[in-house]
Fold this protein.
Amino acid sequence: METKQNLKVAEVKLTYKTSVKASDRPQINSSVEVYTVLKENWNFEIIEFIEEFKIILLNRANRVLGIVPISVGGTAGTIADPKVIFVSALKCNASSVILVHNHPSGNLKPSQADIELTRKLKAAGQFLDLPVLDHIILTRDAYFSFADEGLI
C-alpha cells in the first residue's frame, strides 16, 4: 500500500515598506549623526533598566532605511544573533549596517564580548558585501563609537 506524503511548504515573502521619501531620511556620515538619530528613536525611559540591541540600516547614500530591534535582554546583557541581524539587512536591501546597543550601567567601555561580537559581525558583513560601519554603545548621556576609537 502506497502512502501519500504531505509536500506542502511555507511561503517566503521578502518585503520592505516605507512611507518616508529617500530625500527625507536622515543621512549619517559620523557617529555624532548616529547619536542624534538614536536620541530621537530610543526609549530613554528604560535605557538604564534593560539592555537592547538594534541595527541601523543604510542605503548607498548613507540614508537611514530603518532601525531594527534585534533583541531585548536584562540588566546585564542581551543576545545579538548574527543571522537575525543580517537577514534583516538583506531583506531591506541595505548597503551597510551600524550596530547599536545600550549599557544600562551607564558604563561606555566596551566589554570583551562586545569587541568579539563586533569583530565577528564585521567579518560576516565583509563576506556578504554588507559592511558594518560602526558599533555604538549608548547611555542616557553619551555614546561610544567603535569606529571613532579605531576598533572597527
About this structure: The first strand starts at residue 52 and ends at 58. The domain at 25-145 is CATH 3.40.140.10 (Cytidine Deaminase; domain 2).
